[in-house]
Amino acid sequence: MTNSTMQTHPTKPLLATLKGQRADRLPMWLMRQAGRYLPEYRALRADKGGFLELVHDSAAAAEVTLQPIRRFGFDGAILFSDILVVPHALGQDLWFEAGEGPRLAPKLVDHLLENLVPAHARLDPVIETVRQVKAALPAQTTFLGFAGSPWTVATYMVAGQGSREQAETRRFAYRDPAAFTRIIDAIADLTIAYLSDQITAGVDAVQLFDSWSGSLSPAQFERWVIAPTAKIITTLKARHPDAVVIGFPKGAGGKLPAYARETGADAIGLDETVDPVWAHKSLPSGLPVQGNLDPLALIAGGEMLDTAITQIIDALADRPHVFNLGHGILPDTPIAHVEALVARIRG
Ligand code: CP3
Question: In this predicted structure, what is the pLDDT of residue 22?
Answer without folding.
Answer: 84
